[in-house]
Amino acid sequence: MKNAFYAQSGGVTAVINASACGVIETARRYPDRIGNLYAGRNGIIGALTEDLIDTAQEPDEAIAALCSTPSGAFGSCRYKLKSLEENRREYERLIEVFKAHNIGYFFYNGGGDSADTCHKISQLSEKMGFPIQAIHVPKTVDNDLPITDNCPGFGSVAKYIAVSTREASFDVASMCKTSTKAFVLEVMGRHAGWIAAAGGLAADADHDLPILILFPEIVFDQAAFIVQVKAKIAQYGYCSVVVSEGVKGPDGKFLSDQGLRDAFGHAQLGGVAPVVANIIREELGVKYHWAVADYLQRAARHIASKTDVEQAYALGKAAVELALEGRNAIMPAIVRTSDEPYAWEITAADLADVANVEKMMPENFITADGFGITDECRRYLSPLIQGEDYPEYANGLPNYVTLKNAAVPKKLGEFEL
Amino acid sequence: MKNAFYAQSGGVTAVINASACGVIETARRYPDRIGNLYAGRNGIIGALTEDLIDTAQEPDEAIAALCSTPSGAFGSCRYKLKSLEENRREYERLIEVFKAHNIGYFFYNGGGDSADTCHKISQLSEKMGFPIQAIHVPKTVDNDLPITDNCPGFGSVAKYIAVSTREASFDVASMCKTSTKAFVLEVMGRHAGWIAAAGGLAADADHDLPILILFPEIVFDQAAFIVQVKAKIAQYGYCSVVVSEGVKGPDGKFLSDQGLRDAFGHAQLGGVAPVVANIIREELGVKYHWAVADYLQRAARHIASKTDVEQAYALGKAAVELALEGRNAIMPAIVRTSDEPYAWEITAADLADVANVEKMMPENFITADGFGITDECRRYLSPLIQGEDYPEYANGLPNYVTLKNAAVPKKLGEFEL
Questions:
Q1: Fold classification of B3-139+301-352+388-398 (topology level)
Q2: Residues of B (199-258) whose Cβ lies below 8 Å from A
Q3: Could you report the predicted ipTM of this complex, rounded to two decimals?
């Protein structure tokens, strides 16, 4: 009987631990098929350095609590394995570690890079005579994986941004007579505007709010933007702007990259929100405020989307079930079968089709003026933020779990990263 | 039978509308004692310009929904009346408007400045032969009003900051092996560190998180700060910093005021979070991230403290009841009768004792090193964030109410502000 290995990769989310919960709880239901389930401490680095965590030492209640705990419970890392040609040594080490611990199932929970790694492990282990079933569990707030209708992690960020944009807009609306008239919220999404688009959900038929979105897909046109801001302020008394960190100017440079220097001439790293706010101030002379959500948005388990939590869990569960069916080099993916009422099911996508493909926002999701979302976009996004799945609270705070993360004894020598 | 007037003043909060709800629902229970209840459109400006809102046109359900809607439903403003000597004209106009609309009760929902205005209206109306019972309903996220144990609005911001700090710390903890090692969150509170202190609640006996707080009460000591950050990173692998927007350096200037200029030499307004993050980068060379919560923190009704919502409502209700008892020039205030279990009651404070007094953090609430909160502080803060009071959701978003805000016909001529 083979053991299994699970690792978290790249930026963590509010629901990646729900996928871990799905993997572990499902594996525990098949004690006659899957031996030990090990996790990588700090992701794939844990596998390379043989720093494995014995998940068997965590009680069922702690594993269940993962479902409502943000962050990566076993640690994650940003560590991209180089190509096989450049660094075969690392891949061979991974397989050596897996062999030493009799690991036959590799569950890798991440985005595009980890799908690629997963695919290579599957191929190379076969060639090396120790075949490993490698299953990728999708995760990324960027929502940019192909094939799957959406990516776990995104729905919760989208909900956070939509809720925050609505709340801040209500706030500004009530003060704009004498105070702030422009509010700018900076959100994640360096390449694709999925998260920024979610800000558009804050306004709907019952909530008429003036929201402009700056997408990374659209080159920033300062004159056109100012015309829009001015018009919103004229009509509503104020304007909310949701800006993606990845917005670029006509020169192709990030708008956030303004060569800021302090009074001593030292370079300072700023965000894009203050840049946009300053543009509004200089052009229109109105009072402004700005916010940068940063990690708050992807860690906000307190306002996670129930749909997102359910899908994250279901994909972890499906990964184990697919492995037990003998599948290899695949990723369980979400297929949307209906927009309204929203319905979805899980399919298996070939990793060969997933690795290194980025899914961008379709053009018909952005309005012709470039500053808003279309009805098609709303139809796509809206189901993903449905439902609340509140964590348990103790002393007024979410009672998030921290695991024991006990180490598995090593069997191999050191390995230098 | 006299009419009543209610207005919201200064920065709005997640629960100021809960106080409005308390005032209006209570007034509606006494139709034989209180005639119409008018609200000022955009706060006191509405009274000065005779722009009154007829709250009778809002159905009971809309008024009830105020209890779970952030922002100021009637509009608020930053408009400080000058002293009586400097601008007697404005006070006389207010009383003229009140007289024209037969207003005998003035409920003013705000912070220190509005307590002062309230007090003066009471005194002057008496002298002018049209006595008005002026009752101040406390509200301020800054928590700096005297006499009352705490101020409605603060508990919810405190909860938001504590929750966000815990969530972001979990996120950073799981990534720090290869990525961000220092996270900086900028919070409100220009003069007093109450909000920053709430970040300290994120860590407790069950959640061992390395959190440093930069209070506006403590002069920023860069060397001491860096020693602390370094120690936390050495012990935990990362460090979270909660910094008040009002932190000042040894030169007495705001730390955020770095004389930032862009590549063209234009002055840029930045926050304090990127400044602190840059200091950490320069001194320790570690990867960092920073967030600025700005309005998100005070508008976050989705994660409001139940205690805060209940107190905000209770103070609005008490204001009307005190008025009906014939009280004048007072503010209903919260008296804490027990820390654990937490218990409170409402008393009436004389406005003469409230106006123009700022309550600062007691010295024994800040640890000797200047970077944390003491047990005394924790004992004070903890009850204020207890309980969740989730709003209703529709389509994945909080279904906040927008009132009709129908105007009351004017009876007087124009007034120039």
A1: Rossmann fold (3.40.50)
A2: 201-202, 204, 206-208, 258
A3: 0.97
